[in-house]
Specification:
Elements: H1 35-48, E1 53-56, H2 61-66, E2 80-84, H3 90-99, E3 103-107, E4 112-116
Antiparallel strand pairs: 1-2, 2-4, 3-4
Helix pairs in contact: 1-3
InterPro entries: Peptidase_M15A_C, Zn_M74/Hedgehog-like
Keywords: Carboxypeptidase, Hydrolase, Protease
GO molecular function: carboxypeptidase activity
């Protein structure tokens, strides 16, 4: 069992990955984050030497539908995170994520990357 404020890596806390429904539809963690994904995000953070802000981690099915996520979204299983790196382009973040072995979808107009394992 995970503790809500558990530090998962030196730079990422479990709360950063909490479902963004704000408790309307779930307890915040309908699934736990994939440890390999979190480890690779930490590697990206170290490569860039820059904070990475998680805007969407795990999602419950209702919230996933609300935000237009696909029915088999990796977010539902804790295997994806949407994020950005303040002061860096989405392309710089994407390049580091690819180097760390992550799948990447760039949302350039929105200013974030979808990263998945």
């Amino acid at each position: 069992m995970c503790i809500n404020n558990e530090q998962l890596t030196p730079h990422f806390n479990r709360q950063e990955f909490k479902c963004c429904c704000e408790g309307r539809y779930c307890n915040g963690f309908p699934a736990e984050m994939n440890g390999e994904l979190v480890g690779r995000l930490e590697a990206v953070r170290m490569m860039l030497d820059n904070p990475i802000i998680i805007t969407s981690g795990v999602r419950c099915p209702v919230r996933n539908e609300e935000v237009g996520g696909i029915s088999h979204s990796r977010h539902l299983f804790g295997a994806a995170a949407d994020c950005y790196a303040p002061g860096l382009s989405v392309h710089a973040l994407a390049a580091a994520a690819i180097a760390a072995g992550l799948g990447v979808i760039i949302y350039e107009d929105e200013g974030f990357c979808h990263l998945e394992i």
